[in-house]
Amino acid sequence: MSVKITAVATQLPPYTRSTDEILPYLKVWLSGQEERFQRKVLKLFANAGVDRRYSIMDAEEVFLKTSFEAKNEVYKRETIKLAEGALTKALSKAKLNAQDIDYIITVSCTGIMIPSVDAYLINKLEMKQDIVRLPVTEMGCVAGVSGMIYANNFLKANPNKRAVVIAVESPTSTFQIDDYSMVNIVSAAIFGDGCACTILSSCEEEEGPEIIGDAMYHFYHAEHMMGFQLTNSGLQMVLDKEVPEKIAEHFPHIVHPFLAKHNMSIEDVDHLIFHPGGKKIVQTIEELFGELGKNIDNTKGVLKDYGNMSSATVLYVLERFMEQNPQKGDVGLMLSFGPGFTAQRLLLKW
Description:
alpha/beta; 4-stranded mixed beta sheet; Peroxisomal Thiolase, Chain A, domain 1
């Protein structure tokens, strides 16, 4: 059974600021802190490799001392809007309507809502009443690829069906106003908000890159490295400084056996569709693949233009490749990392 990616669409939230525009807000937030520490934080933001960030809240609201409940209400209201926008765009690209979708997967980790966002979309767009739902809430940055893996497995077992995967995230909702730890600051420096939707199909007549392989890889004894701690003030980021080093250590096990399983090597891969976790992770990946003549320009470009939007980010990278119309026969390796610690992969062929 052939499963293809027929469309990818993205939706940005209404508020945006360049890094230069954010720095004055940081200076106010940092007032009262030791001067050397203030300079370090401002330098970190300036050198994060992110030129612009988008948010469901304007900067004044992000830096206000609001409750977890208040921030989560904004998350709920705005993520529904973002998800509807991305889904509507993707349906338009694929020349489909909402009733054509058989399986809906929504992924998010930066807020809490029950029912999940897919329930709202089903009602707003009057999708099929027997549509199969799968909300995924606890897989972090890797969930965009995870959702596509779940969709691929569903579609391989069900011919002539279609699935949507919607990744919608607001990391700015998790910013901790009273937390001056480097983890909170690094998180604020590299993350931004965004939403993306991709449509997958097992209908023979529909076109797009085919998924020819998928797999998950789990790092042992690395649960502490990435995630969120639920506190009275909200979701507090957990991010170990050793993440880039751990990724580099495991990269040969993540990439080469997966490709060998499909009778390929890294030399056979034309496009690297990698999640931009942050500047250090991007640099690590570039060092590993640069000597092989591979570039990750689209990954770097997405980080620069939007920041790390958690699970949605790799779909922004995928959209750029789709718009560049790779040649027939080209192979793409899609890769994300996330809490657990885990790496998840898709192998695509145009």
